[in-house]
Write the structure tokens for this entry.
Amino acid sequence: MTTDDFAGHVAHNANLSIKAIEALAAYADLAHLLKQGDVASEYKTSAKKMAEKWIVMAQEGDHYKLAFNSPDTWSQKYNLVWDDLLGYDLFPKSVRETELKFYMTKLNRYGLPLDSRADYTKLDWSVWTAILASTSEQFNAIIDPIYRWTSEGPSRVPLTDWYDTKTGKQVGFQARSVVGGVFIKALADRKLTAKWQNKDTSPGSKQ
């Protein structure tokens, strides 16, 4: 099972593995807040080692695979957004930059497909992926087609989060709470502003 199991089950899912690794880092962070130093150190070390192993296992030339055992595949690695927002920095910036550069070659009229299996995408996760961009040009390259879809899309329903990036037609889902994920840019901007103001943005801070 995966978080996008509606697209078909995928064992050894690379994107989902990122979420699991981030979860271990979060557990270490919670242990630190509870003054469980040994536990925090153990899980932080494990998360770091797994991130390093992930890079080797998922690497495929100019991008990273959909699943570790699936050559000639790709997928949005939207779960990387939490590595930055939570300040864990388990994955080097080069991983995000490699993925974003590759995504620029896969864009359709109405957005970036979820992965190499089909032309459809997920609205909220696509915006998460856009947050990984290191330049405004890359960010806009992913967001602009989404804006075009909201204006031109033929399926006039309460906002769907699952649609075809070539036709703009709704594939499934509508009026779901996950659409709130599109506001992640506000969270990312807030984190950046806090850095400029030299405030504490570390996990567990009162910001």
Notes: Helices lie at 14-33, 37-58, 81-85, 93-103, 123-131, 136-152, 184-196.
